[in-house]
Amino acid sequence: MLMLMVISFATSVRTVAARPSVNNMENHFTAGNESEEVRLAAIKRLLEVFGMDDPPAIHEHKQPPQYMLDLYNTVADVNGVTKDPNLLEGNTVRSFFDKLHSEQVEYRFNLSTVARTEKILTAELHLFKLRPQTKLALNQHHFCQVSVHQLLDTSRINNTQEKKLLSSRLVSVHSTGWEVFTITQAVRSWTSDEGSNLGLYVTIRTLGGSQMDMNLIRFASGRNHHQSKQPMLVVFTDDGRRSTALENTGESDFTTTPSLPYAPLSGSPSRSVRSVDYREEDGMSLPCQRLPLYVDFEEIGWSGWIVSPRGYNAYHCKGSCPFPLGQNMKPTNHATVQSIINALKLIKGIETPCCVPEKLFSINLLFFDDEENVVLKQYNDMVAGSCGCH
Ligand SMILES: *[C@@H]1O[C@H](CO)[C@@H](O)[C@H](O)[C@H]1NC(C)=O
Ligand SMILES: *[C@@H]1O[C@H](CO)[C@@H](O)[C@H](O)[C@H]1NC(C)=O
Ligand SMILES: *[C@@H]1O[C@H](CO)[C@@H](O)[C@H](O)[C@H]1NC(C)=O
Fold first, then answer.
1. Dist CA 171 CA 168 (whole Å)
2. ∠ CA(313), CA(317), CA(320), 5° rounding?
3. Residue 279: its pLDDT value, please?
4. CATH number at 2-61+241-389
5. Cβ–ligand 2 contact at 196 (below 6 Å)
6. What is the pTM of this model?
7. Which CATH code fits 92-238?
8. Ligand 2 nearest-atom number relative to CA 111
9. Each residue of 314-356: pLDDT tens digit?
10. Domain ranges in the chain with CATH number 2.60.120.970
11. Given Cys at both, which of 69, 256, 270, 389 links 329, Cβ 3.0 to 4.6 Å?
């Protein structure tokens, strides 16, 4: 399975990457073995850009939770580009389904996919309150007190299981729909000590404090109700990754794996690509500008685990930066001086400045992880917003 994906992906990386300048690329894919090596390195590097070691295993597909789809559409435009960087506090939102499927109002979530380095910002329990059974709807109670407890392991000290109150709220008996409870502290303790995760227990009481009739107020369980109403844990985190810049790629990586196949995908074309372009088109090169570069996840072979978007326009920067550099080229002072030195031919071998992304935007990915949980993640510096001479 993995191998198949790798091969189809490798084939398509070539297609995608080759688009901007087909002729240049061909030269680098002459020796069969060498190109295979390059392709494998490209796959690995692209996954790293998306913060993964391996592509998530593809299971038979569940429908992603509506909440996650809505959240994605709130933070991202149709191309996956972040609408407003302030909408989301962290850069990751993970959803988990209840693993217990209990008839009781008891839930357990497996948080093993949350990396230890991820900072938990907020965690919410989402429960779907079902319509009350009509014959009981004329009951005297209009509100009930719904409390979420963390189950604690005290069985070694005392043969009873202790509960810690996490969140409590009045809920209308006649309402139907999602009820959200904040349980951040419990999730923080579970991620720091997985063994302490014994789950959650919900109590429903009348305002007088007595046990509520469980036929009157019910929450959908993972066992008896439609998948779209399953109890769900939503965890907002930050993985601390601010940029996918090639910060941990040492020089040695460049010598063993030429940067060509993935450079156009990561939005910052390598210098070798650029200089070849220019030599070819000398004299008739257009001024520095932003041009389309569509990264198609289906072509790459990732459509199995990426829910949205199907692909995105990363754009690329191309063109010449000759003297004099106008303000529309957004030159740095350094670039201006370099273009002057180049024009005056004062010093041999000084090229014109380079046409590179000046502003970069983040994109959002909604995808299934290895455990079939749906994850929303933001990746910085993925789309060239504008180009300039630097
Ligand atoms: C190159 O690949 C071919 C088959 O594709 C294989 O027979 C050969 O041993 C490889 N050469 C090297 C040096 O790996
Ligand atoms: C959570 O999921 C991981 C990965 O599937 C598994 O290894 C682990 O045993 C699970 N933990 C619990 C408590 O079920
Ligand atoms: C055991 O747990 C019960 C219920 O929480 C509590 O009332 C009791 O004091 C505990 N006993 C001991 C010895 O801790």
1. 10
2. 155
3. 45
4. 2.10.90.10
5. no
6. 0.77
7. 2.60.120.970
8. 1
9. 999 999 999 999 888 899 999 999 999 999 998 989 999 999 9
10. 92-238
11. 389
